[in-house]
Amino acid sequence: MKKVWRYRKFYVEISSKGQKYLETQNLKMMENLKMIGLTLLLAVAAITFASAQHGYMHGSRFEREMDDDERGPKIPDLTEEQESKMKELKVAFKDVIRPIENELNEKRAKLKTLCDEDKPDRKQIENLVEEMGALKTELNKKEVNHRLDVKQILTKEQQLFLENRHEHKRGGRHIGH
Q1: Looking at residue 97, what is its pLDDT?
Q2: Which span out of 32-36, 95-99, 170-174 was modeled with the highest average pLDDT?
Q3: What pLDDT shows up at residue 175?
Q4: What gap in Å lies between CA 65 and CA 82, rounded to an integer?
Q5: Helices then strands (H, E): number in the chain?
Q6: Contact between residue 173 and residue 69 where contact means Cβ atoms under 8 Å apart
Q7: Closest CA to 150 of 163, 139, 140
Q8: What is the DSSP string of 42-93?
Q9: Is the pLDDT confidence value at 138 over 70?
Q10: pLDDT higher than threshold 80 for residue 70
Q11: Which of 79, 83, 51 is nearest to 64 (CA)?
Q12: What is the pTM of this model?
């Protein structure tokens, strides 16, 4: 039995043998697409899980690098005085950056809301992006000042250890050098 199939603009007669061939090819293609989709889903899940395990989803970038209590080796030969000063600096730093990070997160949410509107106000969005840029700059300045404050209470060897550790965490890239 012959069947007529439409292929683009043409009508083609196909025998029952040809029809079965096309159907099996269609099934194979669907199976391949399912396997590709499943593979992509598993890859995304694995990446998300690995990121969460390493703490990349929590806290600011600087907090993750400086959190010695949970990650990596501690700075060698720290005196009790140095440890107490570092804890004081860390607490003060977190108190200073918390409101900035909260405001930045609020502005991110507002930006998403504005962009999702049917007719977004470009001027309002641009102003919001400018405000977010200013907050990020302020946050970066606070992070740099905190690093410099920590550096002042360390010996040269301890500073070198800290610099090497930060370089290693950035994948060996030399940023700003």
Answers
A1: 97
A2: 95-99
A3: 45
A4: 18
A5: 5, 2
A6: no
A7: 163
A8: HHHHHHHHHHHHTTTTSS-HHHHHH-TTTSSPPPTT--HHHHHHHHHHHHHH
A9: yes
A10: no
A11: 51
A12: 0.55
Least confident of 14-23, 91-100, 101-110, 158-167: 14-23
Query: Which residues, listed in sequence order, are joined to residue 115 by a DSSP beta bridge?
Result: none
DSSP state, residue 69: T
Other residues' Cβ atoms within 10 Å of the Cβ of residue 82: 16
According to DSSP, the residues that pair with 5 across neighbouring strands are: 12
Whole-angstrom distance, CA of residue 96 vs CA of residue 101: 9
Measured between alpha carbons, how far is 6 from 147 in angstroms, rounded to an integer? 69
Sign, CA torsion 87/93/99/100? negative
**Whole-number Å distance between alpha carbons of 85 and 122:** 47
In terms of Cβ atoms closer than 10 Å to its own Cβ (0-12, 13-18, 19+), residue 149 is: middle
Q: What phi, psi does 69 have (nearest 5°)?
A: -65, -30
For tokens 């030969």, name the residue. Answer: 77
Distances (CA, A) of 152 to 32, 149, 175: 60, 5, 21
Query: What does the pLDDT average to over 73-94?
Result: 91
| Tokens of residue 86, six digits | 């570092």
